[in-house]
Amino acid sequence: MMQKKVCMLGGFAVGKTSLVRRFVSNVFSEHYHTTIGVTVEKKSVKIDDRDVTLVLWDLYGEDEFQRVRDSYLRGSSGYILVMDGTRRATLDTALALRQTAMRTVGTVPFIAIINKADVRSEWEIDERAIEQLREQGWTVLFGSAKLGQGVEELFVTLATQIVQTSPIPSDSL
Amino acid sequence: MKSWPGNLALHNESLFNAVLSTLDMAVFEREEDSAEFRLQGLPPDWWHLWVGPANGTVLDLGQCSPFLRDYLVGAHPIWEGQSGATEKSGPWTEPDRQGGTMTLEATALLIGSKKLLLIERLGSGFEEMGAIVQRARERMLAEERTAKSYRKTETRLISELEASERTKDDALALLQHLGLAALVLDERGHITFASDRGLEILGMTAEAVIGQEWEQALPLHKQDRVPIRELIDTASDPRKTCVARIEGPRPRWVEIEVHGDPRHPGRHIVIVHDRTELHALRRVLNEQASFHDLVGKSPTMLRTYQLVRDVAQVDTTVLIEGETGTGKELIARAIHSCSGRKHKPFIAANCAGLTDSILTSQLFGHKRGAFTGAVNDQQGLFEAAEGGTLFLDEIGDIPPQVQTALLRVLQEKEITRLGEAKPRKVDVRVVAATHHNLSEDVVRGSFRADLLYRIRIARVQLPPLRERREDIPLLAQSFLGQICTATGKTIERLNPDTLRLLMSHAWPGNVRELKSAIEFAVISCKAKEVLPIDLPPEINNAPVVPSSSVWIPLPNRDEKSRFLAALSDAKGNRTEAARRLGVSRATFYRRLVELDIDPR
Q: At which of B274, B308, B324 does a domain end?
């Protein structure tokens, strides 16, 4: 079976863990529980009739006190940049993490998701900013870990891109 | 660089195990040329929970943990470096064999040639650190929410403020478009708003007005502030207004109305109407309606005013003709006031009823001893009027000898005092007046023709009041105002019936009679308006004649009866009788002689 390491990147409290838990266990908690270090989870998906195990590295949220360790990113086949639509600053963090990821793992598939689509009226990230991201070649999805909206699509889309862009190693078959 | 023993476990295995047990960690040594690790010493208690039942001491750790699989690739540089180098993996959390999770941290180190890997389970210290980070981030989130709430409130307030500003701008634009001059006063009478038009009328800037108390800020005369203060105190009646004069380089007349602010009791809206132009027009109208002390705006009088202005510009002798009481002396004064002699004396002399010698002495003066009683040198009226105007009323009544002397003065511009031989130069303008028809007097031989021609170089003919009845309301109102001011009575107007009577009266005594009638009425009046009953009986009781009727002078016999009646009513007081008839004392005396009436 093919295993692919996928890192969840983003500012703190944007919902990285919630997205993973919704995807892996289909659960959601309103309670915020910060991640220290990295939590590793696995989930298999079927891409083009092939089973792919996504090894999800749910990294701690980056802020001014904790920078993401390059070692956590090494070996990633792809990554997900998570933003909180209600906090404009998380877009800036995502842009910075994108640079870190580029420097560490090079050009691998990634998807940006703006979480908390369930409170769209409170969003601070506006259409203009989203449009600018898309103009830079980003795939930007909207989702809600709380509602489960866009979560499956997020991981499957990334897995598909990873599978399409990377050769299948013989030991993974 | 710290130096480590080559094989710690071999040298003191029991101590090594004790240390491992205390630190609660597993220690592995990497097999040479293999990806496998050999467990050193005893594994910690949690070890089987993580990897399952022990199956030998040589393990492929990359198969045990996806995290280690990645990390061990990254840890190669440590093992290829110098002895004593270490690298921590950072904490990671993975599912354990019992459905829970376990948080671990690996440390790669090189001791001598031995490539070691220490794996420890993070316990209470890690959880405490996690709790601190948790609290810090929760606090940051809370602060972000608060800041966001503030931003939203700020945005809302800015939006409301902008809407309010827009409304205010619209209102102001409307105000400016309408050209409305408005001030808003707060409860303390301080100006909180002034429209542009208001500032323009006041001739002030917003900086000088806003925040100031209105009485201090507005350039008003002290007297004008009183009615405005009253308006503010009784702002409930918006129909009340008052007129005030704005002082300054460009004085303005304004009409002020005060309204209570419907939104804020205690505040006031002051509307200022610029009435300067209206005031100027009224003044022009008033000037047309009066000329010096003459009142009237009938075409006849307007022509007379213009004639007076024209006559005043030349320095010739003027003859004023008109019935008694028409205001001949006022015309003479007006000519003097309009002339270049206005800053010099104006002397009026009545020539009627005076003897030859007295009139000569009065006009030309005398030398001490010139006649009995001439105890001092005395200058005459000609000398007294030097440089100015001498008004000779009733010139038709002067004796022939005086006419001759007067003619000489007019021709030679010099006089000779009684008792003197040497003439004196005089520079006097003579304005004469008469109610006679002097041409007829010349025919009768009672007046010198050459003197007539000398004094009649310019002529002003004053119409009798009956020929300018349209001036009667204006004259009556003017007299009413003058007399009320003099007497201190407050009478606002004439009753329409009163005015009707005044308009229909014949007014043989002309304006003087009208003034006398108004004086009589003011004395009698007890109300705010003059009623017909307040008028003298000869007016009140007289049958009303159509206003278009032409007054015909009464025959002498009737006039004699009126004079006798006036004397009787005045109990023989000739001054009072003359006043009642509306004629001067001089005229009264002259008519008594002419009508052969014995005043006693």
A: B274
| pLDDT tens figures, B342-381 | 999 999 999 887 888 889 999 999 998 888 888 888 999 9
- CATH number of the domain residue B70 falls in: 3.30.450.20
* Domain count within chain B: 4
The two structure tokens encoding residue A111: 């998807």
Q: Do B66 and A75 touch (CB under 8 A)?
A: no
Same domain, yes or no: B447 and B309: yes
Q: Give me the phi and psi of B98, to 5 degrees please.
A: -110, 15
Domain membership of residue B600 (yes or no) is: no
Chain A residue numbers touching B103 (CB-CB < 8 A): 36-37
CA-nearest residue of chain B to A34?
B134
| Residues of chain B positioned with their CB less than 8 A from the CB of A34 | 130, 133-134, 137
d(CA A155, CA B179): 69
In Å, how far are B325, B490, B579 from B483, measured between CA atoms?
Answer: 18, 10, 15
**Closest to B45 measured CA to CA, from B87, B116, B96, B115:** B96
Residues near B194 by beta carbon (within 8 Å), at least 6 away in sequence? B182, B183, B184, B202, B206, B209, B210
CB pairs under 8 A between A and B: 70
Q: Which DSSP string corresponds to chain A?
A: -EEEEEEEEEBTTSSHHHHHHHHHH----SS-----SEEEEEEEEEETTEEEEEEEEEEPPB-SS-PPPHHHHTT-SEEEEEEETT-THHHHHHHHHHHHHHHHH-S--EEEEEE-GGGGGG--S-HHHHHHHHHTT--EEE-BTTTTBTHHHHHHHHHHHHHHHS---GGG-
pLDDT for res B287: 63
Query: Predicted confidence band at B592 (pLDDT cuts at 50, 70, 90)?
Result: confident
Q: Is A44 on the interface with B (CB under 8 A)?
A: no
ipTM: 0.88
Residue B579: its pLDDT value, please?
76
Report pLDDT digits (tens) over B475-531.
999 899 889 988 888 898 899 899 999 998 989 999 999 999 999 999 999 999 999
Distance from CA of B95 to the nearest CA of A (A): 8
Task: Give A110 or B236, the one with higher predicted confidence.
Answer: A110
pLDDT at B554 over 60: no
Domains of chain A: 2-167 (3.40.50.300)
What's the confidence (pLDDT) of residue A162?
A: 94
Judge whether B165 lies within some domain.
no
Does B130 reside within a domain? no
Residue range B313-342: mean pLDDT, rounded? 92
| Numbered residues of chain B with Cβ closer than 8 Å to any chain A Cβ | 65-67, 70-71, 73-74, 89-95, 101, 103, 105, 126, 129-130, 133-134, 136-138, 140-141, 144, 148
Which pLDDT score is estimated for B237? 64
**Mean pLDDT, chain B, integer:** 85
Asked if residue B567 has pLDDT above 90, the reply is no
> For A107-114, what is the mean pLDDT?
97
Q: Looking at residues B2-23, what average pLDDT do you find?
A: 64
Pair (B406, B307) in one structural domain: yes
Residues B22 and B118 in one domain: yes
When scoring A34, A79, A171 by the number of chain B Cβ atoms within 10 A, the one with the most, hence best to mutate, is A34
Q: Which of B426, B444, B463 is the last residue of a domain?
A: B463
* pLDDT value, residue A167: 65
**Which residue does chain B place closest to A69, by CA atoms?**
B90
Average pLDDT, chain A: 92
Cβ neighbour number for residue B53 with a 10 Å cutoff: 6
Picking from B445, B471, B461, B532, the residue whose alpha carbon sits closest to that of residue B496 is: B532
Pick A74's closest partner by Cβ from B74, B101, B137: B74
Range of the domain at B24: 8-122
Is the domain of B338 the same as that of B304? yes
